C-alpha cells in the first residue's frame, strides 16, 4: 500500500492493538531514526501508549531504541527508534545473465549482495540451486538473533498474484514456472513474488525519488527489456490479474522490430540495453560498467557516429512511449532506472526536448523526470517490501505464523 500516511492514523480509543502496532512499525520502517515525540505527534496516540508499542516492537526484534535525540530545539530530548537490522528478507532477482541474491533489513538497508553470473538464461531449477547455495553461506554468517522473514522474488515477466507462478518470462524462456513454490520448499520460507519493475516502483515510492508522490510512473530498463510500475492516487495499479505496468509493450514505431509479445515496434524491442552495449563496444564481462564506459567515451571524444546515433534514436523512441503513457496516466513524476537512466545522462536535455510539442496543455508539460540510483539495488529493496508488507500489517501475528511453520 502506498497511500500517504494520514494525520493521526492511530487512536487511543481503538481497541485493536494490531492496528496501532502496525501503524508505529510502518512509521519506524519508513522513517529512519524517528523519535518517540514524532511518533506521538504523527499517530495521535499518547506518550505512554507509544512507549508500550515501541517496547513490544523491541521485544519482537523489530525495532531498536537508540540514543537520545538531541536535535530537538525545545523540550526534553526524545528517544529515537530505528528498524531492527536483525529483521531480514532474502531477495532474489533472476535475469538473463545474472541471478542476484541479497539480504535486506527493515528500513530498506541492503546487508549483503551476491551476483551469480551465468553464461545463459538460467532455468527455474538452476535458480533454486543457486539461491539455495548462496543463502546457505549467508545464513551461517548471520549474527545471533538475526532472522529471515521470507523471500522476495522479483521476476522479469508476468507473475500470477495468487500463487506466484511465473506465467511467462520470455527473455528467460520460462512459461508456467512454479519458481515460488520450488524456492519455498527448498528454503522452508514463505515466498512472495512480483514483476521486477513493479517491485522497483514499490522501492521508489517507499524510499526513493517517488517518496511522497501520489501519482508516479516508474520505468526500468534491464537485460530482459523494459518494465514499469504505476502508482495512482498513492496506490499501486495492479490490474485484474496483476499484470498492469507492462509499459515496455507500449507501441512506439510502426513496422518496427518484432517483440517477444508477438507484436512489433514495442518500446522494449526498439530501446534496448544490447544496442547500447554493442555501440559502446563493451566486452561481456564488463557490462556492469556500461554507464561509466559510455559517459567516458562521450567526454573524451572517443565516441563515434554509431554510438551517437543509437543514443539519439533510443531517446526519441523513449519520448514517444512516455508521451503515450503520460497522456493515459497523467503522472506528476517519472523515475527512470536501469539503462534508461544512462540514456538520459548520455544526452542531457535531449529527452525533455523530444517531449516538447505543440499545444498549450501538454500532459507531460509539468511532469518531473527523476533518475533512479545506479545499479539494481532498487529492485532488491522493492522485493524485500513484498516480504515486509504482511509483517508491517500484523507484526506479532506474522511472527507467530513463522514460528508455527
UniProtKB/TrEMBL annotation:
Region feature (Disordered): 1-20
Superkingdom of source: Bacteria
Compositionally biased intervals (Polar residues): 9-20
Originating species: Arthrobacter sunyaminii
Classification via SUPFAM superfamilies: Actin-like ATPase domain, Winged helix' DNA-binding domain
UniProt similarity note: Belongs to the ROK (NagC/XylR) family.
Protein name: ROK family protein
Amino acid at each position: 500500500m502506498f497511500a500517504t500516511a494520514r494525520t493521526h492514523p492511530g487512536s487511543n480509543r481503538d481497541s485493536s492493538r494490531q492496528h496501532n502496532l502496525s501503524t508505529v512499525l510502518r512509521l519506524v520502517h519508513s522513517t529512519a531514526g524517528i523519535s518517540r515525540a514524532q511518533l506521538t505527534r504523527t499517530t495521535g496516540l499518547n506518550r505512554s501508549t507509544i512507549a508500550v508499542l515501541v517496547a513490544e516492537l523491541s521485544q519482537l526484534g523489530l525495532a531498536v531504541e537508540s540514543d537520545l535525540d538531541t536535535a530537538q530545539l525545545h523540550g526534553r530530548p526524545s528517544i529515537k527508534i530505528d528498524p531492527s537490522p536483525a529483521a531480514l528478507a532474502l531477495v532474489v532477482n533472476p535475469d538473463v545473465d545474472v541471478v542476484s541474491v541479497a539480504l535486506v533489513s527493515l528500513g530498506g538497508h541492503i546487508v549483503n549482495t551476491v551476483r551469480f553470473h551465468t553464461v545463459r538464461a538460467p532455468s527455474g531449477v538452476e535458480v533454486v540451486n543457486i539461491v539455495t547455495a548462496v543463502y546457505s553461506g549467508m545464513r551461517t554468517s548471520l549474527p545471533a538473533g538475526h532472522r529471515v522473514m521470507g523471500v522476495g522474488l522479483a521476476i522479469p515477466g508476468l507473475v500470477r498474484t495468487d500463487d506466484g507462478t511465473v506465467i511467462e518470462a520470455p527473455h528467460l524462456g520460462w512459461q508456467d514456472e512454479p519458481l515460488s513454490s520450488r524456492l519455498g520448499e527448498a528454503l522452508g520460507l514463505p515466498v512472495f513474488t512480483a514483476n521486477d519493475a513493479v517491485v522497483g516502483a514499490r522501492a521508489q515510492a517507499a524510499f526513493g525519488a517517488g517518496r511522497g508522490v501520489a501519482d508516479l510512473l516508474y520505468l526500468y530498463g534491464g537485460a530482459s527489456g523494459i518494465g514499469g510500475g504505476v502508482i495512482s492516487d498513492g496506490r499501486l495499479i495492479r490490474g485484474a490479474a496483476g499484470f498492469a505496468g507492462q509499459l515496455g509493450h507500449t507501441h512506439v514505431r510502426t513496422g518496427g522490430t518484432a517483440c517477444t509479445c508477438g507484436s512489433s515496434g514495442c518500446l522494449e524491442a526498439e530501446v534496448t540495453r544490447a544496442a547500447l552495449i554493442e555501440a559502446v563496444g563493451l566486452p561481456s564481462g564488463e557490462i556492469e560498467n556500461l554507464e561509466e564506459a559510455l559517459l567516458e567515451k562521450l567526454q573524451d571524444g572517443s565516441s563515434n557516429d554509431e554510438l551517437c546515433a543509437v543514443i539519439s534514436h533510443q531517446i526519441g523512441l523513449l519520448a514517444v512511449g512516455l508521451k503515450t503513457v503520460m497522456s493515459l496516466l497523467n503522472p506528476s513524476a517519472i523515475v527512470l532506472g536501469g539503462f534508461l537512466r544512462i540514456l538520459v545522462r548520455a544526452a542531457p536535455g535531449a529527452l525533455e526536448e523530444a517531449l516538447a510539442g505543440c499545444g498549450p496543455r501538454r500532459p507531460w508539460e509539468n511532469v518531473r523526470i527523476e533518475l533512479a540510483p545506479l545499479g539494481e539495488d532498487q529492485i532488491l529493496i522493492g522485493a524485500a517490501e513484498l516480504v515486509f508488507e504482511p509483517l508491517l500489517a500484523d507484526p506479532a501475528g506474522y511472527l507467530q505464523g513463522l514460528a508455527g511453520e
